[in-house]
């Protein structure tokens, strides 16, 4: 049960923080203070509240028990940490679809919307409800052995089927919409979303997919095969990876680097679009292109686009 004191607040934000880092704890405490000062209630996981040295008080700060659905009755989840923390927040709140807003205190923070120096403006936007939420396509991932589903989960970034033993290749046949596509001896296969296209898929040579594109991606990891290209298929397609039954190598499935299960020879992994998207808060209208350039530090000096357009149109265009 959620522990609440006196009257429940009208508004509530779940704050999740990577409390192992002092820098994160400081920002988290400042956010809790600022939200409650503006009359917005804060919910904290009980362990994180203890790590932050905060207690339930005055009805504006509450803590949850482990069996609670953390995002229930919350208008937003404020995540303080890096991409790993946002993937963790997606897992903790997936069943409520509460929108996630990340303040980046990680290394890359590709999924985060705000930087720590923007904390005041971020809190002001939350208080004023001045934000939008963007639905991100997810994957529904099922592992079948002898036609029985033995594991199922969702993924925001990807489902990666990987070899379990360093010294053995994984032998798989991949399938699209019930038709076999190719057999690969490989290190693994990554089935990714557009959101995950900049993560493991990117390292594996897959395409960067703008988030508004609806698609499923499949890319092999070091396949010893002539045909081993990254593939982009319809969001309505069903992908499958079958670990051959007569292979010596077994595998392991990882979803978002968090949810994992061993794959015996003969396992079949089915990946389709998930029924429930993950909602990411947007504070800025900055295009994805700008995010890609900023996060990956891409060289764009010498670009003449905006200046050229202004000159051509006689100054009618903004930069
Ligand atoms: N070789 C690889 O590139 C590789 C291997 C394993 C896992 N991963 C990725 O790590 C993710 C888990 O992240 P973590 O932070 O918990 O683990 P982690 O700490 O090992 O970080 C992995 C890196 O991936 C980045 N990342 C995560 N999601 C991203 C996204 N959507 N776009 C761009 N970059 C992203 C993180 O910022 C971090 O730099 C997995 O979902 C997978 O995509 C990548
Ligand atoms: N409160 C917490 N308790 C335990 N583990 C946490 C907590 N918050 C985050 N983590 C885990 O810590 C790991 C690293 O998270 P973090 O968000 O800092 O990623 P990072 O790798 O440092 O940054 P980035 O992914 O942006 O490079 C992730 O696996 C995440 O799930």
TrEMBL record:
GO terms for molecular function: ATP binding; metal ion binding; NAD binding; NAD+ kinase activity. It catalyses: NAD(+) + ATP = ADP + NADP(+) + H(+). One of its GO terms (cellular component) is cytoplasm. Involved in the regulation of the intracellular balance of NAD and NADP, and is a key enzyme in the biosynthesis of NADP. Catalyzes specifically the phosphorylation on 2'-hydroxyl of the adenosine moiety of NAD to yield NADP. Its EC number is 2.7.1.23. The gene is nadK. Belongs to the NAD kinase family. This is NAD kinase. PANTHER family: NAD KINASE. Its main location: cytoplasm. The active site is at 83 (proton acceptor). GO terms for biological process: NAD+ metabolic process; NADP+ biosynthetic process. Its cofactor is a divalent metal cation.
């Amino acid at each position: 049960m959620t522990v609440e004191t006196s009257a429940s607040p009208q508004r509530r934000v779940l704050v999740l923080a990577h409390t192992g880092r002092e820098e994160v704890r400081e920002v988290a405490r400042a956010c809790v203070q600022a939200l409650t000062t503006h009359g917005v209630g804060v919910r904290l996981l009980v362990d994180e509240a203890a790590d932050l040295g905060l207690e339930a008080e005055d009805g504006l700060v509450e803590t949850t028990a482990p069996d609670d659905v953390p995002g229930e009755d919350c208008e937003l989840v404020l995540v303080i940490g890096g991409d790993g923390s946002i993937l963790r927040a997606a897992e903790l709140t997936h069943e409520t679809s509460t929108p996630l807003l990340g303040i980046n205190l990680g290394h890359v923070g590709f999924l985060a919307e705000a930087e720590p120096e923007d904390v005041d403006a971020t809190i002001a936007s939350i208080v004023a409800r001045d934000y939008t939420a963007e639905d991100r396509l997810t994957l529904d991932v099922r592992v079948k052995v002898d036609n029985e589903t033995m594991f199922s989960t969702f993924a925001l970034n990807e489902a990666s089927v990987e070899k379990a033993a360093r010294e053995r290749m994984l032998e798989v046949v991949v399938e699209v919409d019930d038709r076999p596509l190719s057999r690969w001896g490989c290190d693994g296969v990554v089935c990714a979303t557009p959101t995950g296209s900049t993560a493991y898929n990117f390292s594996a040579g897959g395409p960067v997919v703008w988030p508004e594109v609806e698609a499923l991606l499949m890319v092999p990891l070091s396949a010893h095969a002539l045909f081993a290209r990254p593939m982009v298929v319809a969001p309505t397609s069903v992908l499958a990876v079958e670990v051959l039954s007569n292979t010596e190598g077994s595998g392991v499935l990882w979803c978002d680097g968090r949810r994992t299960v061993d794959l015996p020879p003969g396992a079949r992994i089915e990946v389709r679009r998930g029924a429930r998207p993950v909602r990411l808060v947007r504070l800025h209208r900055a295009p994805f292109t700008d995010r890609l350039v900023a996060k990956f530090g891409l060289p764009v000096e010498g670009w003449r686009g905006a200046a050229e357009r202004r000159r051509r149109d006689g100054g009618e265009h903004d930069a």
